[in-house]
Design brief:
With 90 residues, the protein is α+β, with helices and mostly antiparallel strands. It has one domain: SWIB/MDM2 domain (MDM2, Orthogonal Bundle). Helices cover 41% and strands 17% of the residues. The strands form 2 sheets. A 3-stranded antiparallel β-sheet has the order 3-4-5. Strand 3 (53-54) and strand 4 form a beta hairpin. Helix 1 crosses helix 3 (65-71). The longest helix has 14 residues, at 36-49. The chain is globular.
Length: 90
């Protein structure tokens, strides 16, 4: 997926800078470089597609095997998720 270039003189913010996902994260979002915002969107698509939100508390994500490799744990809150994703982006 191509990332559009910013017009000259405009500084790219952290959400728009293309980053390379780790092999563990690439299993979920693909191996192409993506801006952080798109990575988060694709992870949410994956979570919803596989029904990994706790039905009793939608803020909690119940990790499957792929997400356990990214999060390093069985579950996390949606607020903690970005901390774990950041460790898998360069």
């Amino acid at each position: 997926m191509a990332v559009e270039a910013k017009p000259a003189g405009k500084k790219m913010d952290a959400l728009q800078k293309p980053l390379t996902p780790s092999p563990e994260l690439a299993a979920i979002v693909g191996k192409d470089m993506l801006p952080r915002g798109q990575v988060v969107s694709k992870v949410w698509e994956y979570i919803k597609k596989h029904e990994l939100q706790n039905p009793a508390d939608k803020r909690e994500i119940l990790a499957d095997e792929k997400l356990k490799k990214v999060f390093g744990r069985d579950k996390c809150t949606m607020f903690e998720m970005n901390k774990y994703l950041a460790q898998h982006l360069k």
